[in-house]
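Sequence, structure tokens reproduced for reference:
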Amino acid sequence: GFETPDEGLLEIGGRIIVGPGILIPPEKRSVGMMFQEYALFPHMTVEGNISYGLSSFVGRSEYVQDMLDLVGLTGMGKRMPHQLSGGEQQRVALARALAPAPQILLLDEPFSNLDASLRTQIQQEALEILRYSNTTAVFVTHSQEEAMAMGDVIAIMDSGRIEQIGTPQDIFHSPVNKFVASFIGLSNFLNASISNGLLYSELGHHMLREQTFSDGQVEIMIRPSDIHLEEDQNGHGRITKRTFQGSFYLYEIALVSGTIIKVLLNHLEEHQIGIAVRLSVREGAEPTIFVDGAAVR
């Protein structure tokens, strides 16, 4: 309800909210909203914030207590927002949005103001609460990791256009085009060619599982975790960069052609910068093939 669409149709649960000659007021749409900045009322207690959108009914106080229990804030109802931590304020905002039992909950980058460790914790807590309350949610985020962790279904948008809709696994493993492939997760793109069921690239040759691809020039995408690396003084690449990421090392390999390849390895697989290496596609991995930027199935 913050914006009026120029065109199109908006339905929630089969009910038209916006359409030709139809514009249901926001307060009658049964939509909850959780803001990026929490937007708690500073002059109201936690209980007051949660009950703000509720009409007067018998048992209202008990219901608010149930909401506090749901979000893990039992006993904090009399506190003021400034007496809460960022994570606790976030839970109050979630409880307030859920209290009127909306048909759908909209979340606008609600965890972007939290530090990394707290963000992960609150993400999981919020996901459990949404599933427990059986609430449909639309969650907007710029974070790939957050989308993967929170979404049952992900929609990837570019300049207002939806490029692909699918499960996190579908989006990651079967991107429909180069934009989606490069947007979700780390990726390497290489020129390649197909001949007689074999895929040839700077990583060597690879037998295709499907024999339906036509011979010719293509482009491939291979994930850093799908590349095998071994030290080889006659290898076709050299390690130029190594970044420690806790459980993993992210290596950058310069091939003879000048192409830079990223490789993600277990933290136990430690290699020194400057050594020569040979790269290949890991057994069982399948590069994604693109023609003119579109994935070929």
Remarks:
- DSSP finds seven helices and 19 strands in the chain.
- The helical segments are 46-51, 60-70, 86-98, 116-133, 144-150, 168-173, 178-183.
